[in-house]
Amino acid sequence: MMTRRAVFLDRDGTLNEDTGYPADIRQVHIYPAAFEAVRLLRRAGFATVVVTHQSGIGRGYFDAAELEALHVGFREEFARHDAPLDAIYSCPHAPGPSGDECSCAKPLPGLGLQAARELGLDLGASYMVGDKPDDVLFGLALGATPVLVLTGYGRTAAAALAARGIRPAHTAGGVLDAAAWIIEQGGPSGHGPV
Ligand SMILES: [Mg+2]
Ligand SMILES: [Zn+2]
Description:
Elements: E1 6-9, H1 32-43, E2 47-53, H2 64-80, E3 87-91, H3 110-119, E4 127-130, H4 133-142, E5 145-149, H5 154-164, E6 170-172, H6 175-184
Parallel strand pairs: 1-2, 1-4, 2-3, 4-5, 5-6
Helix pairs in contact: 1-6
Protein backbone atom coordinates (compact mmCIF):
# COMPACT_ATOMS: atom_id res chain seq x y z
CA MET A 1 0.00 0.00 0.00
CA MET A 2 1.23 3.48 -0.84
CA THR A 3 1.78 5.53 2.26
CA ARG A 4 1.84 9.27 2.64
CA ARG A 5 3.75 11.45 4.99
CA ALA A 6 1.55 13.53 7.24
CA VAL A 7 1.79 16.57 9.39
CA PHE A 8 -0.47 16.16 12.40
CA LEU A 9 -1.66 19.51 13.66
CA ASP A 10 -3.11 20.36 17.02
CA ARG A 11 -6.08 22.72 16.72
CA ASP A 12 -6.46 25.17 19.62
CA GLY A 13 -3.36 27.29 20.20
CA THR A 14 -1.74 25.95 17.02
CA LEU A 15 -4.13 26.63 14.11
CA ASN A 16 -6.42 29.02 15.98
CA GLU A 17 -6.43 31.07 19.14
CA ASP A 18 -7.08 28.95 22.20
CA THR A 19 -10.25 30.48 23.58
CA GLY A 20 -11.33 27.66 25.86
CA TYR A 21 -14.30 25.67 24.65
CA PRO A 22 -15.67 27.19 21.44
CA ALA A 23 -19.02 25.63 20.52
CA ASP A 24 -19.48 27.48 17.23
CA ILE A 25 -17.20 28.33 14.30
CA ARG A 26 -17.97 32.03 14.82
CA GLN A 27 -16.07 31.80 18.13
CA VAL A 28 -12.97 30.40 16.41
CA HIS A 29 -10.24 32.76 15.24
CA ILE A 30 -7.98 30.89 12.85
CA TYR A 31 -4.45 32.33 12.66
CA PRO A 32 -3.99 33.71 9.12
CA ALA A 33 -0.56 32.02 9.09
CA ALA A 34 -2.28 28.65 9.52
CA PHE A 35 -3.79 28.82 6.05
CA GLU A 36 -0.39 29.51 4.53
CA ALA A 37 1.19 26.71 6.59
CA VAL A 38 -1.34 24.13 5.42
CA ARG A 39 -1.10 25.34 1.82
CA LEU A 40 2.71 24.92 1.85
CA LEU A 41 2.58 21.52 3.53
CA ARG A 42 0.02 20.22 1.04
CA ARG A 43 2.10 21.53 -1.83
CA ALA A 44 5.12 19.67 -0.37
CA GLY A 45 3.10 16.45 -0.48
CA PHE A 46 2.07 16.10 3.16
CA ALA A 47 -1.34 15.02 4.32
CA THR A 48 -2.58 17.57 6.88
CA VAL A 49 -4.43 15.92 9.74
CA VAL A 50 -5.84 17.80 12.72
CA VAL A 51 -5.80 15.91 16.04
CA THR A 52 -7.65 17.71 18.79
CA HIS A 53 -8.86 17.10 22.32
CA GLN A 54 -12.39 18.48 22.60
CA SER A 55 -13.30 17.59 26.14
CA GLY A 56 -16.07 20.21 25.99
CA ILE A 57 -18.26 17.31 24.83
CA GLY A 58 -17.41 15.15 27.84
CA ARG A 59 -17.86 18.18 30.06
CA GLY A 60 -21.32 18.86 28.58
CA TYR A 61 -20.47 22.31 27.10
CA PHE A 62 -21.48 21.22 23.60
CA ASP A 63 -22.49 18.01 21.89
CA ALA A 64 -21.00 15.89 19.12
CA ALA A 65 -23.30 17.39 16.47
CA GLU A 66 -22.19 20.91 17.39
CA LEU A 67 -18.53 19.91 17.23
CA GLU A 68 -19.12 18.24 13.86
CA ALA A 69 -20.78 21.42 12.55
CA LEU A 70 -17.88 23.50 13.87
CA HIS A 71 -15.40 21.22 12.11
CA VAL A 72 -17.36 21.38 8.84
CA GLY A 73 -17.03 25.18 9.04
CA PHE A 74 -13.37 24.90 10.04
CA ARG A 75 -12.58 22.72 7.02
CA GLU A 76 -14.56 25.06 4.75
CA GLU A 77 -12.46 28.01 5.94
CA PHE A 78 -9.24 26.16 5.10
CA ALA A 79 -10.58 24.97 1.75
CA ARG A 80 -11.65 28.51 0.90
CA HIS A 81 -8.05 29.60 1.47
CA ASP A 82 -6.75 26.92 -0.92
CA ALA A 83 -5.47 24.95 2.07
CA PRO A 84 -7.68 21.87 2.43
CA LEU A 85 -7.28 19.71 5.52
CA ASP A 86 -7.25 15.95 4.93
CA ALA A 87 -9.07 15.08 8.14
CA ILE A 88 -9.90 16.12 11.68
CA TYR A 89 -9.76 13.54 14.48
CA SER A 90 -11.16 14.47 17.89
CA CYS A 91 -11.15 13.01 21.37
CA PRO A 92 -14.47 14.04 22.97
CA HIS A 93 -13.73 12.69 26.44
CA ALA A 94 -13.28 14.60 29.64
CA PRO A 95 -10.66 13.17 31.98
CA GLY A 96 -12.38 10.59 34.17
CA PRO A 97 -13.27 11.38 37.79
CA SER A 98 -10.80 8.75 38.99
CA GLY A 99 -8.14 10.11 36.67
CA ASP A 100 -8.50 7.24 34.21
CA GLU A 101 -8.23 8.15 30.57
CA CYS A 102 -9.77 7.03 27.30
CA SER A 103 -7.45 5.63 24.65
CA CYS A 104 -7.80 8.61 22.30
CA ALA A 105 -6.68 11.59 24.39
CA LYS A 106 -3.22 12.89 23.60
CA PRO A 107 -0.54 11.92 24.52
CA LEU A 108 -1.94 8.42 23.90
CA PRO A 109 -1.44 7.62 20.21
CA GLY A 110 -4.99 6.36 19.50
CA LEU A 111 -6.12 9.12 17.14
CA GLY A 112 -2.85 9.05 15.22
CA LEU A 113 -2.95 5.28 14.81
CA GLN A 114 -6.55 5.52 13.59
CA ALA A 115 -5.55 8.22 11.08
CA ALA A 116 -2.61 6.13 9.90
CA ARG A 117 -4.92 3.15 9.26
CA GLU A 118 -7.64 5.15 7.56
CA LEU A 119 -5.43 7.45 5.49
CA GLY A 120 -2.44 5.17 4.86
CA LEU A 121 0.19 7.28 6.61
CA ASP A 122 3.88 6.64 7.15
CA LEU A 123 4.15 7.64 10.79
CA GLY A 124 7.94 7.46 10.98
CA ALA A 125 8.16 10.04 8.19
CA SER A 126 5.44 12.23 9.70
CA TYR A 127 5.46 15.22 12.04
CA MET A 128 3.32 16.48 14.91
CA VAL A 129 2.91 20.21 15.53
CA GLY A 130 1.34 21.47 18.74
CA ASP A 131 1.54 23.88 21.67
CA LYS A 132 1.36 21.59 24.70
CA PRO A 133 3.57 18.91 26.24
CA ASP A 134 0.93 16.31 25.36
CA ASP A 135 1.28 17.24 21.68
CA VAL A 136 5.02 16.62 21.77
CA LEU A 137 4.54 13.37 23.71
CA PHE A 138 1.85 12.28 21.23
CA GLY A 139 4.27 12.83 18.36
CA LEU A 140 6.91 10.78 20.15
CA ALA A 141 4.40 8.01 20.95
CA LEU A 142 3.58 7.76 17.23
CA GLY A 143 7.21 7.60 16.21
CA ALA A 144 6.74 10.90 14.39
CA THR A 145 8.89 14.03 14.70
CA PRO A 146 7.47 16.47 17.27
CA VAL A 147 7.56 20.23 16.74
CA LEU A 148 6.52 22.65 19.47
CA VAL A 149 5.00 26.01 18.57
CA LEU A 150 5.21 29.00 20.93
CA THR A 151 1.66 30.19 20.22
CA GLY A 152 -1.14 29.13 22.58
CA TYR A 153 0.41 27.49 25.66
CA GLY A 154 3.72 26.98 23.87
CA ARG A 155 5.90 29.06 26.16
CA THR A 156 4.63 27.29 29.26
CA ALA A 157 5.01 23.99 27.45
CA ALA A 158 8.62 24.70 26.49
CA ALA A 159 9.50 25.25 30.15
CA ALA A 160 7.52 22.20 31.30
CA LEU A 161 9.19 19.95 28.73
CA ALA A 162 12.65 21.26 29.54
CA ALA A 163 12.02 20.55 33.24
CA ARG A 164 11.19 16.94 32.30
CA GLY A 165 14.18 16.60 29.98
CA ILE A 166 11.96 16.13 26.91
CA ARG A 167 13.09 17.90 23.77
CA PRO A 168 10.92 18.50 20.72
CA ALA A 169 12.87 18.07 17.49
CA HIS A 170 12.28 21.76 16.83
CA THR A 171 10.66 24.76 18.49
CA ALA A 172 8.99 27.21 16.13
CA GLY A 173 7.45 30.63 16.74
CA GLY A 174 4.20 29.52 15.14
CA VAL A 175 2.64 27.07 12.74
CA LEU A 176 4.00 28.74 9.61
CA ASP A 177 7.58 28.63 10.94
CA ALA A 178 6.96 24.99 11.87
CA ALA A 179 5.78 24.20 8.34
CA ALA A 180 8.80 25.90 6.80
CA TRP A 181 11.15 23.91 9.06
CA ILE A 182 9.38 20.63 8.23
CA ILE A 183 9.61 21.28 4.50
CA GLU A 184 13.32 22.13 4.87
CA GLN A 185 13.96 18.69 6.34
CA GLY A 186 13.25 17.09 2.96
CA GLY A 187 12.74 13.39 3.38
CA PRO A 188 12.03 10.05 1.78
CA SER A 189 9.15 11.22 -0.38
CA GLY A 190 11.52 13.44 -2.31
CA HIS A 191 9.13 16.35 -2.14
CA GLY A 192 11.43 18.54 -0.10
CA PRO A 193 14.82 19.95 -1.01
CA VAL A 194 17.73 17.51 -0.80
MG1 LIG B 1 -3.39 23.20 21.74
ZN1 LIG C 1 -10.82 10.17 24.11
